[in-house]
Prior knowledge:
By secondary structure, the chain is α/β, with parallel strands linked by helices. It has one domain (9-52, 60-116): 2,3-Dihydroxybiphenyl 1,2-Dioxygenase, domain 1. The chain has helices at 15-25, 74-81, and strands spanning 9-11, 29-34, 37-42, 45-50, 66-70, 86-93, 98-104, 110-116. The strands form two sheets. It has a four-stranded mixed β-sheet with strand order 1-4-3-2, with helices on one face. The chain has a four-stranded mixed β-sheet with strand order 5-8-7-6, with helices on one face. The longest helix is centred in the first third of the chain and has 11 residues, at 15-25. The model has no long low-confidence stretch (mean pLDDT 92).
Amino acid sequence: MKIQEISPILWTTNLDETIKFYTEALGFTAQSNFPHFVSLSKDDTRLMFVVPQEEPDFHQSVLTGSIYIFMENVDAFWELVKDKATIKDPIADRAYLMRDFAILDNNGYELVFGEDISGRPK
């Protein structure tokens, strides 16, 4: 038995703004797009968003953590997105041997993009 991938399904109040942010600011591609659902991908990463239809009290997106996206060449990606998103934490080397940065998407979800630097010479 092998788990193949994890793909969060996140709630949004505005699907069009979410698609625009992920495609224009982060370079994702919309794979499946329905009236209340979209699947967005970039390389081997996929996120799904839905506008809840049976949750009358849903007014705002809330995530009590962050989504960590491991990648290569994080510095180049930082240069592409730093002026297109709200920066939560600028790019830096971290004590946990990752070089990463954190942004907030249009829904307020925290996305952290990081690269393993454990093998990098000191």
